[in-house]
Amino acid sequence: MTTTRTHPRAARPVIRTEGLTRHFTRHKATVEAVRGLDLEVGRGELVAFLGPNGAGKSTTLRLLTTLIEPTSGTAEVAGYDVVRQRREVRRSIGYVGQGNAAGHAQRGRDELVSQGRAFGLSRAAAYARAEELLESFDLTEQAMRPVSTLSGGQRRRLDVAIGLVHTPTLLFLDEPSTGLDPQNRVNLQEQVRRLHDELGTTIVLTTHYLEEADAIADRVVVIDHGRVIADDTASRLKSGLGDLVTLGFATETEATTGAWHADLALGSSAEVVREGTVVRVRAPHGADAAPGLVTELAWQGIPVTRMEVVSATLDDVFLELTGRSLRETDAKSESDTDNEGAAA
Amino acid sequence: MTATIETPVVLPAREARLPKPPGVIADTWNVMVRELRPVFREPASVLFAMVQPLVFLALFAPLLPEVEDGSALQWFVPGIIAMTALMGASFTGANLTQEIVTGSHERLLVSPLSRSSLLVGRALKEIVPMLMQAAIIVAVVTPFSFDLHPAHLLVGVLILAGFSVGIGALSFALALVSKDQEWLFWTVQQTLIFPVLLLAGVLLPLEGAPGWLQFGSQLNPLTYVVDAERALFAGTFPVDTVAYGALASLLVAAFGLAVGLRAMRSSS
Fold first, then answer.
1. pLDDT in tens, A189-198
2. Which residues are CB-neighbours of A261 under 8 A, at least 6 positions away?
3. pTM, entire model
4. Element at A275 (helix H, strand E)
5. CB-CB contact of A271 with A282 (8 Å)
6. Averaged pLDDT, A270-279
7. Across-strand partners of A34?
8. Do B19 and A119 touch, CB atoms closer than 8 A?
9. Are A170 and A14 in contact (CB under 8 A)?
10. Where do the domains of chain A lie?
11. For residues B248 and A246, what is the distance between their CA atoms, to the nearest angstrom?
């Protein structure tokens, strides 16, 4: 679950970008996928890049993992420049992309071994490591089956296992749980969380699932149109917005009076809106204030007929910041710069 | 399902002690072995590129005219072996197209493997299925009126090896350029392969062909490879024909690798 741990920004961050920018040319038009990104990630952080499809999350990840070069600006990953020291960056990081790490004609064990060898493990060490990971990820039985015959969940576990062969201290995951069923998604999130907690692995992942960012990340970087629009812990992002208290009244007149009282009782930090017989109050610590408010209204002879208290979600945060709901944005995600990133 | 990883947490500011990376040769070997594993796990897969050549062999061989010195099969088989090598090596990019679509190519690009090893290892692997396919064809035709000349065959196979590496590299380059558009790969591959085959006189001799056809044939490196193979399979060793065949094979290999490396270096 979310913790309110402050991010330990080390003196020397593991990731540092300055004015990182990437343009693509599509149909003679320039798409600014990432615009002047300034970002620091400290050692041991678990950061989620959250944003709708096409926000520039994946392009950012592809810049940081040396798959594409920035149009301008710089990025250092694990102390190495992503343009001038690509091989060093590649040797320092683990990467789990959106697709499958294992070739579909291959066998899982073979892919783990060849990845280990690519990172300089001896033959024996590569085989031992492969066995260890197959066991950790519950894939021993599927180890010698063609990857194309594995289920989606099994394949995704294999992807993560391949990304961990060399025990990286910095791991990138691009949309790790997209396409997984809810149970597999939770399993994967637990594994990522455990990797971070037990080994102190620095993890950067992209997601367009609010619940995912909320559930596993210590720090959420909200990205929209290629820019960072918010950057904090999930709980602080949400508490800044406050809780939503919905009060129902018998009549509109009572509701109007109720709204007036609520405004008075909760002060300027609250936002009160009446719609018919319903009053919506958005206020910091609204959940704590609600019982007192209801009692107060009862004293005034305005009984509350029904009440609902909902904590702010990251979607509310996104809505507040952009005027759009992340869910809506997500549902109609056509012009998709992330995919252009993948195609470039 | 516990993700326990035993390594102690050592966190220097920069990964000062990155393990020594394997060299280019080790990387290339790794890539080649990786490509070969599915072949060895499912040896029947080498038959895929052989369907057409074997059909041609079965349907054309009975039509071959009687010739005075040696059997017509002796003339026809080297062409079919060269055709199989061309088919197999030119199909091979489709595997890379699939890896581009499913994502494993991207994983390899982010790994420490050098770009050149990713191309060269793949291209070198083409030699193995080519050898397996040549062995199958020779085994199939040997019971018929076909004489085996092992030493000559060895030279013939070496020439084909260089040719396969070059065509394989070109096929990978085509796959890299086509990216995830599989249709593009197949369209170009199919458009090119038959003119190359027919202009090399693989199925029909080009003696007496009109001048423009002769000219096209002379520009086709496969022509020289097939001529050399035919001489060698007949148990003769005309130095100039064999040398031209070897040179054509080397040129195809060099050109293919150069184009392939360029494509791989700009792959993302």
1. 888 998 899 8
2. A293, A296, A297, A300, A302
3. 0.83
4. strand A271-275
5. yes
6. 89
7. A22
8. yes
9. yes
10. 15-238+334-343, 242-311
11. 81
List beta partners, residue A281: A245, A272
User: From chain B, which residues contact A within 8 Å (Cβ)?
Assistant: 1-7, 9-11, 13-15, 18-22, 26-27, 30, 33-34, 37-38, 41, 95, 98-99, 101-104, 106-114, 179-180, 268
Residue B15 falls inside a structural domain: no
Which one of B110, B267, B268 makes the best mutation probe of the A interface by having the most chain A beta carbons within 10 Å? Answer: B110
Distance from CA of A66 to the nearest CA of B (A): 7
A15-238+334-343 against A242-311: fold identical: no
Q: Is B55 within the bounds of a domain?
A: yes
Q: Which domain holds residue B249?
A: 24-265
Alpha helices, DSSP H, located in A240-306: 252-266, 286-299
For the four alpha carbons of B252, B253, B257 and B260, in that order, the dihedral sign comes to positive
In a domain, B83, yes or no: yes
Residues of chain B with C-beta less than 8 angstroms from the C-beta of A179:
none
Question: B17 in a domain, yes or no?
Answer: no
CB A231 within 8 A of CB A219: yes
pLDDT-based confidence at residue A10 (cuts at 50, 70, 90): very low
CATH number for the region A242-311 comes to 3.30.70.2470
CA distance to A53, A186, A212, per residue, from A177 (Å): 14, 9, 9
Backbone angles phi, psi at A205, to 5 degrees: -130, 155
CB contact under 8 A, A105 and B114: no
Number of domains chain B contains: 1
Task: Kindly report the CATH number that applies to the domain delimited by A15-238+334-343.
Answer: 3.40.50.300
Instruction: Name the residue of chain B whose CA is nearest to A192's CA.
Output: B3
Cβ within 8 Å, pair A120-B102: no
**ipTM of the complex model:** 0.85
Please tell me the predicted confidence (pLDDT) of residue A304. Answer: 92
